[in-house]
Design a protein that fits this description.
heterodimer; A: 402 residues; alpha/beta; Aspartate Aminotransferase, domain 1; Aspartate Aminotransferase, domain 2; seven-stranded mixed sheet; three-stranded antiparallel sheet; 12 strands; globular; B: 375 residues; 13 helices; 39% helix
């Protein structure tokens, strides 16, 4: 089988927050499992074997993320898990008490959560309320407290991501849960970017629901999970055969699930050492960037405890980020202007705007994100290309401004 | 497993099929080297994007449709949910939905959800062979009917509907027609113009692609509301990072050579004739003529369906009682009871389903085993 990207042309890939290559352990499990058959709902031996793989994977993922096996609901990925969490919570809580119409969400949620929230507002009668963030991209607890306490009985659910995908800023999930708990309001967190990079313990978090996905931590695209406490009532998004304790119908893909479990296992076990390694690579990168382009601004929290170890978000004043992306790409270096889901859409990032940036700085920022295949050489290639890329992108902006 | 001396004979392909070797090989580069996110605007992302669009074209060609009308989903269940809920919710015709009584739970439960949202749902009955007649459908269509969803072929008894005749009725009235073609894919012509449908669902794992991928085709003139919201992938119709490897696998599966339906039908009929001749009381369920080639399903009144399955498996023949989704449940099949079978008789159902690997020798062995267990 030929590799479409032979080694000499292999790019320096600094876009791991968009998707990261599968770890070898996950590839091995996936390819081995794809060669077998079996519908986990069938009663015969091959069905039972597939079921066993699914249940063992469920146990492994639960153990590594501090949850009970019965709390793991497999989905086709993070977007579906977020849709299930927020629509399911809204529908169930609103059905129990029609006064519960408000959905509270942070201003920097990923589109996979933001869009279902806005849809509930537009089509299903939800009253959607944004919580503001500070200049570092962290939810303002004073703002959230005011919103909750103005009328706690009207709140159907609160959702706050664990760590932001563009900025890497880590959110005060513990405090949000503590504010919601006295009022019995369920809290969901999209932990897609945090899983595998930060220590996650679902039980200790006090959350009612949490989203994770495989392909951001070295597993395959097409599988994820919603962790949801058993007593949480969730109206399903996908109806049918009643798999996944009736919360999510559809035939379970044992190969995808087993591969996901392998990736969770590996990423959690290596997390501490990997975080230290990536933090050092990140330091090498941002120090180099600022040395070469002194006016560059590294955004997000400066305190390593408040940000992901592998993400660096940098503004290059006076530079067109899209031009820089293309110039880097032409040199075999792959970076991003933000979330891949909005890349190509000529809109400034809602995350940066929420943090108080103007459109000008939002359109001159790049995200560099590292991962398990990143090495010093990748960082050095960025730094070697930067002076020329920066000069040409500045010139492009200057020409356009005239 | 003392008496199982060789690999079991797997005759439950309607539940799931093994992943084809050529499908795995097509997917391999996208699981390893070309791992990009197709929404990323760099080279790795572009390669993934191109592979995804090639896959979309192949699937569109399989359906005789336009690529822009093909949406990749996480499977048949999601495709059915998106079609039934999505078309009904977007309809300006009204709030009445028609489904057949023998649909897969993915369609029936989506309709039940619509009923909770204030829709009126009518189940159109089937005859004793599991067929929906033109008269039966005509009788339930209304001015405010927003959608008709009738499967192409049944997963339990293999009965094939005359979708073209049924969709002609809805076309006259401007009602969108969805068909769940999960079971018929690979066996029957799925040209959407010839079927006359406006929406169609496929599942990868019934075609030799992996689990976790499916397709919803909706004609461009039929509006529908997406089920999964987010980053706006799949042209806004289905959010979530695109599963490129699985889409490539799906395309390889629809391109793959298929067994000759007429040949498999002959083998199947020989098998059915032997079981009916040599097992006292055995009855074929479903339509003897309008039937998927790879389906032979029976009831054995007076016997225990559960113990037949166990006895057959012990002797190396892997089959099922019907839908895998309902396996383990005491409830008789809704398909068989809708066809007029008594509950007790429906509980004795045994389904044999097979695909490209079937031979007359394999089916002869299966028939020998059935006769020795039940004869």
């Amino acid at each position: 089988m030929t590799d479409p990207l032979p080694a000499p042309h292999r790019p320096a890939y600094l876009d791991h927050a968009a998707t990261t290559p599968m770890v070898p352990e996950a590839v091995a499990v996936l390819t081995e499992m794809l060669g077998r058959t079996g519908n986990p709902s069938s009663l015969h031996a091959s069905g039972r074997a597939a079921r066993r793989v699914v249940e063992e994977s469920r146990e492994l993922i639960a153990e590594r993320l501090g949850a009970r096996p019965s709390e793991v609901v497999f989905t086709s990925g993070g977007t579906e898990a977020n849709n299930l969490a927020i629509k399911g919570l809204f529908w169930s809580r609103h059905a129990q008490d029609p006064a519960r119409r408000r959905l509270l969400f942070s201003a920097i949620e990923h589109h996979a959560l933001l869009d279902p929230v806005l849809w509930l507002g537009k089509e299903q009668g939800a009253d959607v309320v944004t919580t503001a963030v500070d200049r570092d991209g962290i939810v303002r607890l004073d703002d959230l407290r005011r919103t909750i306490e103005s009328d706690p009985g009207s709140i159907a659910a609160i959702t706050t991501m664990w760590a932001n995908n563009e900025m890497g800023s880590v959110q005060p999930v513990d405090e949000v849960v503590a504010m919601a708990r006295p009022h019995g309001i369920p809290v969901h967190s999209d932990a897609v970017q945090a899983a595998g990079h930060l220590p996650l313990d679902f039980a200790a978090s006090g959350l009612e629901a949490m989203t994770v996905t495989a392909h951001k931590l070295g597993g395959p695209i097409g599988v994820g999970a919603l962790l949801a406490v058993r007593e949480l009532e969730l109206m399903p998004l996908l109806h049918g055969g009643g798999q996944e304790r009736d919360v999510r119908s559809g035939t379970l893909g044992a190969p995808l699930i087993a591969s996901f479990a392998a990736a969770v296992d590996v990423s959690v076990r290596r997390r501490e050492a990997e975080a230290t390694r990536l933090e050092q690579l990140r330091a090498r990168l941002v120090e180099g960037l600022v040395e070469l382009v002194p006016e560059a601004i590294v955004n997000g929290p400066a305190d390593p405890a408040l940000r992901l170890p592998h993400v660096a978000h940098v503004t290059f004043p006076g530079c067109d980020a899209d031009a820089m992306l293309m110039l880097f790409d032409a040199r075999g270096i792959e970076v991003s202007t933000g979330s891949a889901c909005t890349a190509g859409v000529p809109q400034p990032s809602h995350v940066l705007l929420a943090m108080g940036y103007d459109e000008e700085s939002a359109s001159s920022s790049l995200r560099f994100s590292l991962g398990h295949t990143s090495a010093a050489d990748d960082v050095d290639r960025v730094l070697a290309a930067l002076p020329e890329v920066h000069a040409r992108a500045s010139a492009a902006r200057a020409v356009r401004a005239r | 497993m003392t008496d199982a001396i060789q690999a079991p004979l797997y005759l439950d392909e309607a539940a799931t099929t093994p992943v084809r070797r050529d499908v795995l090989e097509a997917m391999w580069p996208y699981l390893t080297g070309t791992f990009g996110n197709p929404s990323s605007h760099h080279e790795v992302g572009e390669l993934a994007r191109r592979a995804l669009e090639d896959a979309r074209r192949d699937v569109a060609a399989f359906l005789g449709a336009r690529a822009a009308e093909v949406t990749f989903t996480s499977g048949g269940t999601e495709a059915d949910n998106a079609a039934v809920k999505g078309i009904a919710l977007a309809s300006t015709r009204g709030r009445h939905v028609v489904v057949s009584a023998i649909e897969h739970p993915a369609v029936l439960e989506s309709a039940a959800w619509l009923a909770r949202q204030g829709f009126e749902v009518t189940e159109v009955p089937v005859d004793a062979l599991g067929r929906v007649s033109v008269d039966a459908l005509t009788a339930v269509l209304r001015d405010d009917t927003a959608l008709v969803s009738i499967q192409h072929a049944n997963n339990e008894v293999g009965t094939v509907q005359d979708v073209a005749a049924l969709s002609a009725l809805t076309a006259e009235r401007g009602i969108p027609f969805h068909t769940d073609a999960v079971q018929s894919a690979g066996w029957l012509d799925l040209d959407v113009s010839r079927l006359g449908v406006q929406a169609l669902s496929l599942s990868g794992h019934k075609l030799g692609a992996p689990k976790g991928v499916g397709v919803l085709w909706v004609g461009r003139r039929t509006p529908w509301e997406p089920l999964v919201h987010g980053g706006g992938q799949e042209d806004g119709r289905r959010s979530g990072t695109e599963n490129v490897a699985s889409a490539v696998g799906m395309a390889a599966a629809v391109r793959a050579p298929r067994p000759d339906p007429a040949g498999v039908t002959v083998l199947r009929d020989t098998f059915v004739a032997r079981v009916l001749a040599e097992v006292p009381g055995a009855q074929l369920t479903g339509d003897p003529q309008h039937r998927l080639p790879g389906n032979a399903s029976f009831v054995f009144p007076g016997r225990s369906g559960e113990s037949i399955l166990l006895d057959l498996e012990r002797r190396g023949v892997v089959v099922s009682s019907g839908s895998a989704c309902h396996a383990g449940s005491d409830e008789p099949s809704h398909v068989l009871t809708a066809m007029g079978l008594e509950r007790e008789v429906a509980q004795t159902a045994v389904r044999f389903t097979f695909g490209s690997a079937v031979t007359s020798d394999l089916l002869a062995t299966a028939a020998d085993t059935v006769v020795s267990v039940l004869g």
